[in-house]
Specification:
Blueprint (H helix, E strand, L loop, with lengths): L6 E4 L5 H12 L3 E6 L2 H10 L3 E6 L5 H15 L4 E4 L15 H22 L10 E5 L12 H21 L5 E7 L6 H5 L7 H13 L10 H12 L10 E4 L18 H15 L1
Parallel strand pairs: 1-2, 1-4, 2-3, 4-5, 5-6, 6-7
Bound molecules: nicotinamide-adenine-dinucleotide.
Length: 283
């Protein structure tokens, strides 16, 4: 019961990582304000989760919605202890040579400004609360290109820098700020962001589950629980000496090129060895 008596805010809580984090924090005694734009999914989560879960509508692209969420939760419970800035989607897909300004802005509002404003409007309710902390969702896409569309990757890299700057701004108030960088986690984000037609969603989900199970050195698919556990740790007193840090939870997907861990994928040295053997066989 690491979060007994604590007030926890989670954005994007109706699905995937946010829903699992809601279940975990609630199971450990927190009052969880689970927010989303998916009101049906959020209400279902509230009614089906054991513990004190209160669903609230909040579009993180709207600073006013975020302010109301934070003020409302603090008004009900007396303050805020933990904020998990999690809401997100895949963002605009065009590359840098084709993306339109409004697509760029919408992606930044959803993935980066949302986190900044999530911090901005929660802080007044966190000052003076022992052990108060933020956990922001970044991504392995912040490590380098190749994991996501460009705008998403840039926004998630921004979340890492924001985490460090906010950690220094808020240290004087005893508030910690950390980030988590999930790898390939099997959630609805892939089908919803890709706007897969309704009739293909089940097939697409099965294919994604299959892909996620062998996409990284750890030989299973990443699950929302893997990320929720890291978030709970970062938000807990056990991480009391961590601030401005980021935890990569990716089954090793960013460790190195595929041939470094997958015996089925030959790398340069294996290819050279094979060529040498072939040449020796010919001589
Ligand atoms: N799944 C992965 O592989 C992965 C990897 C790295 C990072 N992430 C990040 O983790 C976070 C959670 O993603 P997920 O995988 O659980 O996806 P998901 O689609 O299962 O859940 C995302 C939730 O965010 C909500 N949401 C979308 N736009 C919103 C808005 N404007 N305001 C409020 N809520 C909104 C959705 O309704 C949904 O409930 C996202 O920020 C995502 O970028 C996911």
């Amino acid at each position: 019961m690491r979060f007994s008596g604590k007030t926890v805010i989670i954005t994007g809580a109706a699905s995937g990582i946010g829903a699992e984090a809601t279940r975990l924090f609630a199971s450990e005694g927190a009052t969880v304000f689970a927010s989303d734009i998916d009101d049906d999914g959020g209400s279902k989560l509230e009614s089906e989760t054991d513990g004190d879960v209160r669903y609230r509508h909040c579009d993180v692209c709207s600073p006013e919605d975020i302010r109301k969420l934070m003020d409302g939760a603090a008004g009900e419970t007396g303050g805020i202890d933990v904020v998990f800035n999690n809401a997100g989607a895949g963002g605009a897909r065009p590359g840098i040579d084709e993306i339109e300004p409004d697509e760029w802005d919408r992606t930044m509002d959803l993935l980066l400004r949302s986190v900044a404003m999530g911090i901005r409007y929660a802080v007044p309710h966190m000052k003076g609360r022992k052990g108060a902390s933020f956990v922001n969702v970044s991504s392995v896409a912040a490590v380098g290109p190749g994991y996501s569309p460009t705008a998403y990757a840039v926004a998630k890299a921004g979340v890492l820098h924001l985490t460090k700057c906010a950690a220094t701004d808020l240290a004087q108030h005893g508030i910690r700020v950390n980030a988590v960088q999930p790898g390939f986690i099997n959630t609805n984000i892939f089908t919803s962001s890709l706007e897969v037609p309704e009739e293909m969603v089940d097939t697409a989900k099965a294919a994604i589950a299959q892909m996620s199970s062998n996409a990284q050195p750890v030989m299973r698919g990443g699950q929302p629980r893997d990320i929720a556990e890291a978030v709970a740790f970062l938000a807990s007193d056990a991480a009391g000496f961590m601030t401005g840090a980021s935890m990569i939870v990716d089954g090793g997907i960013t460790l190195g090129p595929r041939h470094s861990w997958d015996p089925e994928t030959p790398g340069l040295f294996e290819a050279l060895e094979a060529m040498e053997k072939q040449a020796q066989g010919q001589s």
